[in-house]
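Lab notebook, bench 4. Still working through the backlog of constructs that have no structural model yet. Next entry is a single chain of 80 residues. Request: give me the structure tokens for it.
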Amino acid sequence: MAVCAIINGNLMGRVRGIIGVTSGDGTVGKALDVLDRVASFGRPVRFSDVLDGAPYPKATLYRLLQTLTHQGVLTFDPYR
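Model written out:
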């Protein structure tokens, strides 16, 4: 599974700073944290790339990435 960030890391950091969201802010905070992780790579990444060092269980991370993809924030490339 490869995902690509539509929003670059710098913009995402500014958005989080403006709205004051941290990873301790429940599901929304976790989703933004995952989005930051994906954006920080600056390239398409595999699920295993995001999972390495992530503070969330595999199932939680998968669910958050799935939600971000269904909402159109991330894209999925089945060929990578």
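Notes after review: The CA atoms of residues 31 and 76 lie 16 Å apart. The chain has one domain: 2-77. Flag for follow-up if needed.
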